[in-house]
Amino acid sequence: MARVCRHCDVVIADPDDAVHMWREESMSGPGRDVWAHREHVDLVEPDTVVTRILARVLVAKALHPTETGGGLPHEVRERYPDCVGDADQGVQQGR
Ligand SMILES: [Zn+2]
């Protein structure tokens, strides 16, 4: 299976240039690995952190609607302070 860079959507030809970012879960399949060019890892990261947080929050809301209803930002900051900090930093830097 081709490794496609998450940042630029180009197939990564050189295995040494492919950095494994994370494994993306899928509702209807085994999931898939997400890759990026070595020089694009920093460009991908802020986006992916937010995406992963949102995915977890959506799951949490589905499982515990009364606990998380309406409190999305606090929920995120309490549970994933490190991730949120990185995400905020990325946004401020405009990356
Ligand atoms: Zn790339």
Helices and strands in order, then pairings?
Blueprint: E1 18-24, E2 32-37, H1 41-63, H2 65-68, H3 72-79, H4 81-92
Antiparallel strand pairs: 1-2
Helix pairs in contact: 1-4, 3-4
This protein binds zinc ion.
Order of helices and strands: EEHHHH
Helical content stands at 40-55%
Q: What is the count of DSSP helices, taking H or I runs of 4+ residues?
A: 4
**How would the global form be characterised?**
elongated
Number of domains: 1
What radius of gyration results from the CA coordinates? 15 Å
Derived structural class: alpha+beta
Rounded to the nearest angstrom, the distance between the terminal CA atoms is 29 Å
Bound ligands, named by name, code or SMILES: zinc ion
Give an account of the 3D structure:
With 95 residues, the chain is of the alpha+beta class. It has one domain (15-92). Helix content is 49%, strand content 14%. It has four helices and two strands, in the order E-E-H-H-H-H. It has helices at residues 41-63, 65-68, 72-79, 81-92, and strands spanning 18-24, 32-37. It has a two-stranded antiparallel ribbon with strand order 1-2. Strand 1 and strand 2 (32-37) form a beta hairpin. Helix 1 (41-63) packs across helix 4 (81-92) and helix 3 (72-79) crosses helix 4. The longest helix has 23 residues, at 41-63. It starts with 17 loop residues before the first strand and ends with a helix. 12% of the residues are buried. The chain binds zinc ion (ZN). Residues 5, 7-8, 10, 36-37, 40 line the site of zinc ion.
